[in-house]
Amino acid sequence: MQIAPYLNAVVVNRGSDLHIKAGGPPRIRISGSLVPLQVDPLTADQSWEIIRETMPAEVAEEFTATNEADYALHVPEIGRFRVNAFRTRGTVSSVLRLVGDEPVPLAQLGVPDVVRRLALEPRGLVLVTGPTGSGKTTTLAGMVDAVNESRAVHVLTLEDPIEVVHRDKLASVSQREVGTDTKAWSTALRAAMRQDPDVILIGEMRDAETVKAALAAAETGHFVMSTLHTTDATETVNRIIDFFPPHEQKQVRLGLAASLRGIVCQRLVPRATGEGRVCAMEIAVNTPRLAEAVADPEKTDTLQDVVGTGGYSGMQTFDQHLLQLVLEGSVSIQDGRLASSNPHDFSVMLKRAGIDPSLVDGATTG
What we know:
It comes from Nocardioides gansuensis. This is Type IV pili twitching motility protein PilT. InterPro entries: AAA+_ATPase, P-loop_NTPase, PilT/PilU, T2SS/T4SS_dom, T4SS_GSP_E_ATPase. Pfam families: T2SSE. By secondary structure, this protein is an alpha/beta fold. It has two domains: 97 residues, Beta-Lactamase, CATH 3.30.450.90; 211 residues, P-loop containing nucleotide triphosphate hydrolases (Rossmann fold, 3-Layer(aba) Sandwich). Helix content is 38%, strand content 24%. Helix 8 runs parallel beside helix 10, helix 10 runs antiparallel to helix 11 and helix 13 packs antiparallel against helix 14. The longest helix has 15 residues.
């Protein structure tokens, strides 16, 4: 396989993604930045030949019809990758993201204990959110693994494509891939209730139909996990409500307030050592105050305050977690401030902690 040396370079250099594009050399994303490989630029024919070789026959057929395709690629002795192929200015490009063959346990990910607690909820809805490349898949895989090790239940996942492979432990895990194991999200969601699931993982909430199905499952005693491309807890709630027309929003708010168990929002921030990135998290847990803020549109803008003062329940804002990461030396002052939700307020938090925000090396004033 022609692409194998490039994929191996991703693994060797601890990268996250490989970009294949005509007119330039392949590039690897390392610690957030794209780095070109020291090889000749690819022609349009070479780019297409390399990408076509990774496609199963049915995926190639789909790509010919739609000019884009999502699929998984496993290369022995190198790893497993999530692939998106697409056309740009008439040529074929592709981005391949390295994903694990095995889930990384939550303990090894270093996430707060409350994430494991949320993963083991018997029923309700938990959302993991963040921009593309923020580690949502890794966190969700760790949460599914926690269930797999702890509960004798049926875990049903609906993914496009399957990324991390789960093998049965205490639980029985059924992973369904859209396009391979089922024709469409809507078909899989309708069938899910007839497959006796206790835990349902929906790869992404992408429309009102998916959200309705997730809420219905959570309200009928299932535990549901899913993702959204949102930046924080407030935006997550608003995005879910905005999927629906105004006359349905009140009922959706009430349903979400009752079924929601938690929201885990993620951002990746460069490590202070310059090697790799660390995950900063905002965590909202559905306490009575938070449920009230979700249910009442006039109180939704208080969600950030509820999260910021909910430390007893395991809640934290991004800026609170970033401050902790700066204090322990994992993240530099400068990177913490750049990643913060409110740089001015974050600078005030630094001063209260005895840190001069004007410094960039993490030194304290005291």
